Amino acid sequence: MTQYLISFNDGAMSHIPEEDFPAVSKAAVAVVLEALDQGVFIFGGGLLDPALTTVVATDGSISQGPNRACKDFIGGFSIVEVASREEAHHWAARIAMACRCAQDVREFMPLPAEMAERARPH
Fold first, then answer.
1. Which residues form the YCII-related domain (predicted)?
2. Contact assessment for residue 77 and residue 88, using Cβ atoms and an 8 Å cutoff
């Protein structure tokens, strides 16, 4: 089984009228509940405004606001663990329909063996 990040950029849902957000939320929750029932949902959620970001530098110093070099910010994401990229695409399509915006699908690299041994089961 492989883990995939399914995500969309901040602002990707800005075309949705405010009055439609309850229906979008309900549809998204329904997809996540189904993924949970299927045992493929690992973790996910929506992220707050990128302006609230803090950046921790390699020296440990902390600055307010997003990294200026970053042009795009993740608006929300789900992590699923499935048998194939096609199955990840299936869940991404379901999420895209619910959230009314396109989804990026990226495969996680396998954990090094010494980390995988200690990773908590899900």
1. 37-96
2. no
Look at residue 122 in the predicted model and tell me its pLDDT: 54
Q: How confident is the model at residue 121 (pLDDT cuts 50, 70, 90)?
A: low
Burial 84-113 (b: 16+ CB within 10 A, else e): eeebbbebbebbbebbbbebebeeeeeeee
The residues near 105 (Cβ < 8 Å, ≥ 6 apart) are 4, 5, 6, 85, 88, 89, 92
Residue 107: both structure tokens together: 């495969």
* Terminal C-alpha separation, the chain: 12
Q: Which residue has the tokens 């329904």?
A: 30
| Closest-CA residue to 80 (of 25, 43, 120) | 43
CA torsion 16→19→20→26, rounded to 10°? 130
Which whole-number Å values give the CA distances from 60 to 52, 54, 57, 78, in the listed order? Answer: 18, 12, 5, 28
